[in-house]
Amino acid sequence: MTTTVALPSTPPRGPVPADQGCLVVQCPDTPGVVSAISTFLTAAGANILTLDQHATAETGGRFFQRTTFRLPGLVAARTELEARFATEVADRFGMQYRLTEVGKPKRVAILVSKTDHCVLDLLWRNRRGDLAMDVAMVVSNHPDLADRARPFGVPFFHVPATRDNRAEAEQRILELLRGNVDLVVLARYMQIITSEFLAEVGVPLINIHHSFLPAFIGAGPYQKAKDRGVKLIGATAHYVTPDLDEGPIIEQDVVRVDHRHATHDLVRLGADVERAVLSRAVAAHLEDRVLLDGNSTIVF
Amino acid sequence: MTTTVALPSTPPRGPVPADQGCLVVQCPDTPGVVSAISTFLTAAGANILTLDQHATAETGGRFFQRTTFRLPGLVAARTELEARFATEVADRFGMQYRLTEVGKPKRVAILVSKTDHCVLDLLWRNRRGDLAMDVAMVVSNHPDLADRARPFGVPFFHVPATRDNRAEAEQRILELLRGNVDLVVLARYMQIITSEFLAEVGVPLINIHHSFLPAFIGAGPYQKAKDRGVKLIGATAHYVTPDLDEGPIIEQDVVRVDHRHATHDLVRLGADVERAVLSRAVAAHLEDRVLLDGNSTIVF
Amino acid sequence: MTTTVALPSTPPRGPVPADQGCLVVQCPDTPGVVSAISTFLTAAGANILTLDQHATAETGGRFFQRTTFRLPGLVAARTELEARFATEVADRFGMQYRLTEVGKPKRVAILVSKTDHCVLDLLWRNRRGDLAMDVAMVVSNHPDLADRARPFGVPFFHVPATRDNRAEAEQRILELLRGNVDLVVLARYMQIITSEFLAEVGVPLINIHHSFLPAFIGAGPYQKAKDRGVKLIGATAHYVTPDLDEGPIIEQDVVRVDHRHATHDLVRLGADVERAVLSRAVAAHLEDRVLLDGNSTIVF
Amino acid sequence: MTTTVALPSTPPRGPVPADQGCLVVQCPDTPGVVSAISTFLTAAGANILTLDQHATAETGGRFFQRTTFRLPGLVAARTELEARFATEVADRFGMQYRLTEVGKPKRVAILVSKTDHCVLDLLWRNRRGDLAMDVAMVVSNHPDLADRARPFGVPFFHVPATRDNRAEAEQRILELLRGNVDLVVLARYMQIITSEFLAEVGVPLINIHHSFLPAFIGAGPYQKAKDRGVKLIGATAHYVTPDLDEGPIIEQDVVRVDHRHATHDLVRLGADVERAVLSRAVAAHLEDRVLLDGNSTIVF
């Protein structure tokens, strides 16, 4: 009976060809916009792989499109392609747009406190190759999860945060993040995020919370839910805005419960749905599938 | 090619034997209570068919039990059995209890306004024999649904109700209900129910509403949900208390939606989940499966 | 207390503007195909409303697209538009295509036997305006459902069918259908459909059955499922091919069950999921959302 | 910025009081059985905490009951209590029964091959205190997962198994298991289990597989499912019998998929549902909630 050192059994995320791009646009809805984008890409030598589009009204609404394509030599040509797209298409239709390389994973910081269900699910899915991200760091206001995060090969930083040193702690986190990440995921980070932090961080933040809000606000939401006899427990993942839990919703889900579930069972089941919902929301963001429309989202 | 008059294709609800009973109790949790009930029933000659019980805490909580049993001659013996149960068991444990005959359907009034999805689902399920109820009447503040309800063989009464005649309209409805029903179902009845009505009606009321509350309160909840980009649409069935939409929850469910669903699609999908949730809640109540525990429910 | 004749409370399906079209195509995947279609439509004066596309592989696969658009004067221009599309686009890419008017509902025959759950859900949804269909007729091998179907304003034809007169019965049904319908829905029609019937009917057929297949084949599937202790009951809607229950799947769903459900409960819950799945499958077909890819479907 | 060694953030599974017991019985259904059990327990000084019972028919069926209770001094009294229960109750009703201490976790071996989703979910849930088990060992026919399992503090044994050394490998596994475990979980163990192994192992085995069976049998089930265009992907957890994938079902679940999911997405989503279903099945077994009724299960 011998045991040997493990080799990685899950291959890293498939080598996405370097020549795959993703173009995400939004603009006032105008006849001809789909044709203009697809003709531009085709003329540039690109082969459209997927195309999702949405208009918020039959006329006079807002138009959204996500297109993935293959274009040999994309990496070298991207800057010039983007400039040409601006001149030839985007300016004409008043578009906001992003042109990204599919093969270039986003750099992500995960902020956590003491519970591990969300961060471990993200790290595990990333190791399997299911998420298009490089985890630049895990940051926590507690030291507890260091030994759980580091075996995944990611740096863990402990930044103690209390009511008294919030400004200082946020500055230390901003120093860690600056220039290093494209996305911050609050994976059950139990500290308030200030408007100042949001103004400075310069990248989107995704948060996860239980779905009862605005019901059962404040401490002990699961106990309050138990007292009301709710039959569903849910979680909501959303972008963080200055109104902390009111930002645009990316993903939601629920599980059924009944009277046999004690409050601690609700907490446990809530954790299950939280990790599933947060992982799906992060996956969608990483693939540039989430487009903002005011306080709402379009998830292609 | 001949067509003939239809015979009913669905047999009426199976002839539940006249000797099946249901005993529902609640009391402070005390050692020996399960044994006391089951021993009483066995000694009385009953065979226990199903038994569900629940205690809200390991010690010092509240105890709930629903027992169905077969007892030859139950109909004739019920009054005496109930009296003996009071003396021998209920008084000793400080129990509230109900002893009902399973074969005796509850008499139900369905209150509706103009939309038919909830009332038709209830009437259709009842015709198939899936609900243990006799529909005594459908009452509406609009005449529109008369021709849809009456083919199911139930009386339809039109009681116009406006802001100005609410008290009078409620009195007319109370006259119709008095002595005739064991349950009132608000199947999308778009009128406020006053505390006075609740105080006088003397039977439980079950209501159905969308699940966003307390979010998106007031008019146009689906438009507000659309603006927020919610990914789930739900419905909640609950008992009516003077706090109209805050009563004990009986059943909830949700359906997934996305940005492609216009507001009218959310309304339509909301109707689907409303009819499913209301029918399940009513079915549970009719079978004496719903026990009240403060503002919460136990649904066996 | 007066009751009056009901007025229809549900407005008929929204007056879809006469100038909305739907173009569905499939062809070998080729660079430039999206651009070609959208450029053709834009040049023709159409405004694209929605566009869904799918390729079965990154290269060398098959391409599918559904585009809805508004084109003033579509009804008058449709024939010429179709001819031009054939010449300018379809021939070039080897496309199969359909160009339909969104405002022109499909004509549907519903075939039933004795159980009403599927047919009533379809008729009720159609009356609310949720389905883009005109129900040309309900045909049954039993007379039972005449009085349930006709109140919806649809003709009901009784065509007795037995093992002995199958060929004759199928001929009578074919006479009823010929030229009158665009779709046949088998809404729990408990007769075998022969290959001869399929060869002659000339329109698609959609069927619904329980989801256990190929398990629990033959009579009494719910009893067999009960004996195996299954925890999920499901239904599958599919197009009918000569291999009756092996045709391309359009929609599936399930409900949870447990040991407390007797076999007749499984049948009843199976009916719930059957009506939901069939209605969703029919809705998708009516809106030209279902594209065939070999024995598989793409449902946009 | 300091980081420190992590302390466990999740408390171990709550210290279940040593005086909680679980009594699981089955016997031919007989009047008086519920009363006999509850009276026995009450007379013995036990306080019933939960009671679930089920009869497979109104009369003449089989009866199943699971009762949890608190009895001060249970650990010391258990042997004598069991003997008295045999004499006073079990023999009289022809019962099979098990009397277990809730606070005594079952000893479990987890058998795996190369994929980690099921084993890591079990180990993670166990570390959080959600599962009533001690993981005695992880055994694999590959060395790959050693470094993923051992950080959870469990032994990992590598037992190479091939077509040629199956008998020998099974013998080595049996030696490891003998006397050490109460349950074996096949958490994606991709080796055939022989009847000889089952005959010798002496404890139950739980397996997990995709839910298509008997459809898409053999290699590549997800590709076959993709080719058929299935809309649901599911998993089934069951006890292992000599008919490998035909044993009594404990738990099942599904997730929705559509044409946009490539075969490798189906595999990935299948893994998600597999880990959820297996963890729920194992949790139910560990708490003595699963009772066998022929080839079916009752899961209280």
TrEMBL record, chains A, B, C, D:
The keyword ATP-binding does not apply. Residues 22-104 form the ACT domain. SUPFAM superfamilies: ACT-like, Formyltransferase. Keywords: Hydrolase, One-carbon metabolism, Purine biosynthesis. It catalyses: (6R)-10-formyltetrahydrofolate + H2O = (6S)-5,6,7,8-tetrahydrofolate + formate + H(+). The active site is at D245. Its EC number is 3.5.1.10. InterPro entries: ACT-like_dom_sf, ACT_dom, Formyl-FH4-Hydrolase_C, Formyl_transf_N, Formyl_transf_N_sf, PurU, PurU_ACT. Pathway: Purine metabolism; IMP biosynthesis via de novo pathway; formate from 10-formyl-5,6,7,8-tetrahydrofolate: step 1/1. GO terms for molecular function: formyltetrahydrofolate deformylase activity. Transmembrane segments: none annotated. Belongs to the PurU family. Catalyzes the hydrolysis of 10-formyltetrahydrofolate (formyl-FH4) to formate and tetrahydrofolate (FH4). NCBIfam families: PRK06027.1, PurU. This is Formyltetrahydrofolate deformylase. It comes from Klenkia sesuvii.
